């Protein structure tokens, strides 16, 4: 047996949802740079699910479906109220999404049309759950989804209870486009492993949320902001980063399993971070991030990944730090569900092997004689 630690370089499936070839990320063959500049998040969702960009009528249909399905069952709101106020928001999201299945009569049906309807429900309801929990833990009432609003606008509206401004909507929309899918990343793989047992879509997405939470994956965006806050100001950057590098500790938001010459999404987020910093008049986090990048790239050759500048982008949008990873989930659920649909279409159980390295020839002795 040859063990490939972390499955690095292993091609575990074919997929036509997204690709990373020579450092270029595409969704269904469209370059992420093109999509980031020219497509809305809902157009990308349609693309991921259907393999084509929507025409006007198809897009309007999806917008209506998402809007019609954005409310969450009262029982799920009550469940969110029952969670500790200090609960981790990804743990709250994971538990609430798992609970959603209990209130969906179709949750265990397996035909393609049902699963497409469930994908719509999940995409529509995740932002509502995240916003509702964020308000409940502050002692505020959840805000009902705004009819007809797109995902980015609706999320900001439900979070704050106020009409968000156009710049914030546009920035969040672009961030959602950039996070929507990413080939066989850890959370997508977790989703595919789960549904490859012919388990249901809610189980697949619940698994994926659990995998996304970790700081080596989606949780890195929160860890980046924690680091920036820890550093505090420009004059501390060099000593802080140098100390970490000397101790061989990881700098969150840098490095990637697949991209060794830079993550194509990072430049868009860097630009957004700079522009939002200028607009808000607070360039501190952006400037600190640039300095960190100079040091880490200069010394280690490691480039920022999608999570690095998203931290300062979300902070400029006044989003609390522990909602960064849930926002990643709000977007990535489109990719997860696209991959789940693809897995069901041509399924085979995913069951690799492990090389056994434990003790052998053990014998069960009487309990009194055991140490
Ligand atoms: N800071 C410092 N050193 C690093 C970093 C980093 N962020 N990333 C990798 N390295 C070093 C490792 O210490 C290791 O050095 P060594 O060979 O001297 O031991 C070498 O680079 C290879 O690193 P691995 O962890 O083996 O690389 P792997 O492909 O397994 O990991 C990962 C990729 C998990 C993304 C890694 O770069 C990392 O931990 N980065 C920080 C966390 C992060 O930003 N995660 C988000 C990734 S993007 C996403 O999931 C949305």
From TrEMBL:
What InterPro entries does the entry give? Answer: 2-MeCitrate/Citrate_synth_II (IPR011278), Citrate_synth-like_lrg_a-sub (IPR016142), Citrate_synth-like_sm_a-sub (IPR016143), Citrate_synthase (IPR002020), Citrate_synthase_AS (IPR019810), Citrate_synthase_bac-typ (IPR024176), Citrate_synthase_sf (IPR036969)
* Gene3D superfamilies (UniProt xref): Citrate Synthase, domain 1, Cytochrome P450-Terp, domain 2
Q: Give GO terms for biological process.
A: carbohydrate metabolic process; tricarboxylic acid cycle
**Tell me, what is one Gene Ontology molecular-function annotation carried by this entry?**
citrate synthase activity
Pathway noted in the entry = Carbohydrate metabolism; tricarboxylic acid cycle; isocitrate from oxaloacetate: step 1/2
According to the lineage, what is the superkingdom?
Bacteria
Q: Which residues form the active site?
A: 256, 307
Gene Ontology CC terms, in alphabetical order: cytosol
* Assigned keywords, A-Z: Acyltransferase, Transferase, Tricarboxylic acid cycle
Q: Which reaction does it catalyse?
A: oxaloacetate + acetyl-CoA + H2O = citrate + CoA + H(+)
For this chain, the family text in UniProt reads: Belongs to the citrate synthase family.
- Name of the protein in its database record: Citrate synthase
Protein source organism = Paenibacillus antri
Gene name linked to the record: citZ
């Amino acid at each position: 047996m040859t063990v490939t630690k972390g499955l690095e370089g292993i091609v575990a499936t074919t997929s036509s949802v997204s690709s990373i070839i020579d450092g270029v990320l595409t969704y269904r063959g469209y370059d992420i740079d093109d999509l980031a500049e020219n497509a809305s998040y809902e157009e990308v969702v349609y693309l991921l699910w259907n393999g084509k960009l929507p025409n006007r009528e198809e897009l309007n249909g999806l917008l209506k479906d998402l809007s019609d399905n954005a409310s969450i069952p009262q029982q799920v709101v009550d469940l969110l109220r029952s969670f500790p106020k200090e609960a981790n928001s990804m743990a709250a999201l994971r538990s609430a999404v798992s609970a959603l299945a209990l209130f969906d009569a179709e949750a265990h049906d397996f035909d393609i049309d049902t699963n497409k309807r469930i994908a719509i429900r999940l995409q529509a309801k995740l932002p509502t759950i995240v916003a509702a929990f964020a308000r409940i833990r502050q002692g505020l009432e959840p805000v009902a989804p705004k009819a007809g609003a797109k995902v980015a606008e609706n999320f900001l509206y439900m979070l704050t209870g106020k009409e968000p401004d156009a710049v914030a909507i546009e920035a969040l929309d672009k961030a959602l486009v950039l996070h929507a899918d990413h080939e066989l990343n850890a959370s997508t793989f977790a989703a595919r492993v789960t549904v490859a047992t012919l388990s249901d879509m809610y189980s697949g997405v619940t698994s994926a949320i659990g995998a996304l939470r970790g700081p080596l994956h989606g949780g890195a965006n929160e860890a980046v902001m924690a680091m920036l806050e820890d550093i505090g100001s420009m004059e501390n950057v060099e000593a802080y980063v140098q100390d970490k590098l000397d101790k061989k500790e990881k700098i969150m938001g840098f490095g990637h399993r697949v991209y060794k010459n830079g993550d194509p999404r990072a430049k868009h987020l860097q630009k957004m971070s700079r522009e939002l910093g200028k607009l808000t008049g607070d360039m501190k986090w952006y400037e600190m991030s640039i300095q960190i990048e100079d040091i880490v790239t200069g010394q280690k050759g490691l480039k920022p990944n999608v999570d690095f500048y998203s931290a300062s982008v979300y902070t400029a949008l006044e989003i609390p730090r522990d909602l960064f990873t849930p926002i990643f989930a709000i977007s990535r659920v489109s990719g997860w569900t696209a991959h789940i649909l693809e897995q069901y279409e041509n399924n085979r159980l995913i069951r690799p092997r492990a090389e056994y390295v434990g003790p052998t020839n053990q014998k069960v002795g009487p309990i009194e004689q055991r140490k």
